[in-house]
Specification:
alpha+beta; Arc Repressor Mutant, subunit A; 35% helix
Length: 162
Amino acid sequence: MAATKDSKDSKAPRPCSIADTLALIGEKYSLLVLREVCLGNGRFDQLVRNIGAPRDILATRLRRLVDAGILTRRAYSERPQRFEYRPTQAGLELEPVLMTLMAWGDRHLREDGDRPMVIEHACGNELAPVVTCSACGEKVRHEDLSAHPQAPGWTVAGPSAA
């Protein structure tokens, strides 16, 4: 699934882990499935109700997330055969992304200030997600970042001249 750039193909997009991740979880309903599963709602009927996705599309998204190792599927009923979905470690590692997206939406899309959900941290306070540097512990700010492309033939501005 990783994007690759053929050095002879100047029209190939920049190799990018963001693009690769979005190809997997950027489809409509995929992050909402992960939201529900992280909330403990992993049964198909719960997912249909809470997400509002058509059943066939939801089944396709679930299959893809299981195949990618983001969710696991476990039978909870033999007759009829029914399954529930749970996040894998890879799925749990996406939870901070969900929390950050939710916080952004609360700040920028909720004019009335009414938030649909509040997440409480184990310390008892409302979660306000912040991205920090794991080395120094400082809050990440745009002006403190610098990109260093690792893909051969690419610079920050785009493909390097051959």
